[in-house]
Input
Amino acid sequence: MSATDQNELSLPPHGDVVCFGFLTYLLLLVVETLPEKNDGARIQEIVESLGDDAAIIASILSSWNVPTTLVSSPVGDDYHGSKVIERLQASGIDNVDRIRQGATTPLEVAIVDATGSRTYFQRRDPLAMASLPSLDSNQLGQARMLYVDWYDGPQVINAMKTARACGIPVFLNIESRYYNNPDLQELLRYTNICQVSLDEPGASGNPAQIARVLIDQGAGTVLVTLGAGGCVIVQPNQSFHIQSPGIKVVDGYGAGAAFAAGVIYGLQAGWPLEVWARFANAHAALKCGITGNPAMAISQVQELAERLDVRSLAL
Output
């Protein structure tokens, strides 16, 4: 895919969406308020789920009957690994071949308070990180899109290079690492859609200006999520802001993945840009109103999306 057609968001007509990333067991604890040091808090709810974003997105898309392939690191043959496999299979993804005998499944514990903010703790060792497989042209040659997260190591860039060689659009999630990421310029060389989050610690700035910088470095379309502020969508020839629907936040964990899944669903369905952007924003908002990442009806998301206000921004 050449630089001149990088801004095109049309997907190949057939094939799977390939989600490439790390696979983790997530234990989500809901509390009213995080306690002070040496104090405690009552757990209001406990949810077992998936991490990281690529796996969450693959699970969502599969539940919406979008042909999806998850290429991930393996899990161990332990309790946490069995729960990850169980969750994937429930959404229609068969990852039984990704079980490694004697390995320990990566673990994440996230605590969500009444503000919807999350505090998380992770257990992942270098061997697990290194177990993320390579992607070759046989796996990507017939794909419709590749989704990757910046934090999954050097294999991400290799996968993006392979996708570009195959003419497959790449969706890159860089979270808030637009300002301090030594690999950013290399990543953006192979990026069609770049998702940024400005609702994380240390993230600040004008979303449209940040997006313009990323576009100048190679991204075709930049999506900036703002939490309760909605989202900003920027392309070289247009920029607009979509409001938040004002849903009471219960659990913000996985909101970025919910947004990305909404974008990909709209793109593979052939929707116009504003339609899929509304849908993605509505899906992320609805996700924040519930604990965990249960499947939602597409009609429910569309109903909310149609009510969202869209405002053009000056280029």
Summary: Residues 3-312 form a domain with the UDP-N-acetylmuramoyl-L-alanine:D-glutamate ligase fold (CATH 3.40.1190.20).
